[in-house]
Design brief:
The chain has 276 residues and is α+β, with helices and mostly antiparallel strands. It has one domain: Arylamine N-acetyltransferase fold (2-Layer Sandwich), CATH 3.30.2140.20. Helices cover 30% and strands 25% of the residues. It has 7 helices and 13 strands. The strands form 2 sheets. Strands 5-4-3-2-9-8-7-6 form an 8-stranded antiparallel beta sheet, with helices on one face. It is globular, with a radius of gyration of 18 Å.
């Protein structure tokens, strides 16, 4: 099998499929793409904990990403998850490109840095936005990449295009549409991921290196822990918010997000939460 920049030949596909609970055959078709998307977001949470545990790097090579997300059962932030997902899709035989988006939800701005990455998959003359790493607000399956496309299910989404040409993915919530991120289809490469990864890990204005951010996108409920505030989102209902105490924050990775941390990591996280 010839390799590509997405390293499909290096992915342990069987181990990945076990990790996400995917059963049955895989093929480069829409049914597989949908099932992979749903299985991945159900199983693998958004996890920025390495940035808070004194780790000086978050490696993006496939070997390290597989070890963390597949073998250790951890989550990862969007760059790690896209590296893994791209390798899986490449191994199966999908054709796709990567893009970067400017997050709007929770930022209140259309002009922040383009830190979020996701994929556009080409199938039978159409393209599908395949985003497994946006967390609690993200889609549970691919959405057709077309003007005014909609994804209707327990959680619904649409795509709109602004006069500037920028595409916007929106989460259609009972309290009104939430703009998740804006993006163009300019192609991004793994080398671009390295630059974004360095920003996320080290920059003082990074949203990911100074407080806990954990997210999980399950079929009937979505959870987001940002700092000490836990957000819970259920179909057809306004989001609920709850302030957690220190003990609840320390237990949340395993109890809510399915992440098992080593005892030393829990102690380090406790010290980080306590502050200087």
């Amino acid at each position: 099998m010839s390799d590509s920049m997405w390293q499909g030949s290096g992915v342990d596909l069987d181990a990945y499929l076990r990790r996400v609970g995917y059963e049955g055959d895989v093929a480069a078709d829409l049914s597989t793409l949908r099932r992979l998307h749903t299985a991945h977001v159900d199983a693998i949470p958004f996890d920025n904990l390495d940035a808070l545990l004194g780790r000086t790097a978050v490696p993006l090579d496939l070997a390290n990403v597989q070890e963390k997300l597949v073998q250790q059962g951890r989550g990862g932030w969007c760059l790690e998850q896209v590296v893994l997902m791209a390798a899986v899709l490449d191994r199966i035989g999908f054709t796709f490109t990567a893009f970067a988006g400017r997050t709007r939800v929770r930022t209140g701005s259309k002009f922040g840095p383009a830190l979020h990455v996701a994929l556009l998959v080409e199938l039978d003359g159409e393209r599908w936005l395949h985003d497994v790493s946006f967390g609690a607000f993200g889609p549970h399956e691919p959405i057709r990449f077309a003007q005014n496309a909609r994804l209707d299910s327990d959680f619904s989404f649409d795509l709109v295009q602004e006069p500037t040409g920028e595409h916007v993915l929106r989460f259609l919530r009972p309290e009104g549409p939430a703009e998740l991120y804006g993006f163009t289809t300019d192609v991004r490469y793994p080398s671009d991921f390295e630059l974004l990864n360095h920003f996320c890990l080290t920059h003082p204005r990074s949203p990911f290196n100074h407080r806990v951010i954990l997210q999980r996108t399950q079929a009937k409920v979505r959870h987001l822990l940002a700092g000490t505030v836990l957000t819970e989102i259920r179909p057809g209902e306004p989001a609920t918010f709850r302030e957690l105490d220190e003990a609840e924050v320390l237990s949340a990775p395993e109890e809510i997000f399915g992440i098992t941390l080593a005892p030393d990591d829990i102690q380090t996280l406790r010290k980080t939460l306590a502050g200087p």
